[in-house]
Amino acid sequence: MEKVYSSYMNTVTQPAQQEGMSQDTKIIITVLMLLFFLPAGIVLTWIWMKWPKWVKIVITLPVFISILAIVVAMIAVSLNPRGQIVKMQELECKQQCNASVNQSICVNECLQKLQTTSKDYYQDQPINPTTYPQQQ
Asked: Is 2 part of a structural domain of the chain?
């Protein structure tokens, strides 16, 4: 009876051992995924790899910080779009006046031109883009 049980256990456990991938194969797949498809590589790093946690965190942290920076930038722009437009216009004027002899006068003239043209444009625009003037 014991011989039958042990032979049964051998047949049950042997296929499971043959199906699993070696650790080297998992490392190669994970590194390739980290290089070519980062999200999947990060998931595989946390699931498959038996690396120390600090290594996993070092791999994951830049992606997390990048996503967080994009979200913060989007929120900052959406909170004050006119302020961001003014900053962009100032930067554009400074870039245009780099070659000018008197940069401060050039920048002031450029900004005055932009303010007069943008004032006409913004008077027609609603302050909150979700509220539109009622048509009668």
From this structure: no
Pair (58, 104) in one structural domain? no
* pTM, full prediction: 0.45
Q: Give the domain extent around 105.
A: 80-124
Give the pLDDT confidence score for residue 19 in this predicted structure: 64
Region for residue 75 given its phi and psi (left: phi exceeds 0; alpha: psi -120 to 50; beta: otherwise): alpha
- Please, which pLDDT band fits residue 68 given cuts at 50, 70 and 90? very high
Q: Examine the domain organization and report whether 25 and 73 are in the same domain.
A: yes
Residue 132 lies in a domain: no
Q: Is residue 69 part of a domain?
A: yes
14-37 residue pLDDT tens? 444 446 888 899 999 999 999 999
Structural element, H or E, at residue 116: helix 103-124
Which of these, 126, 76, 115, lies nearest to 93 by C-alpha position?
A: 115
Q: Are residues 63 and 103 in the same domain?
A: no
Total Cβ atoms within 10 A of residue 76: 12
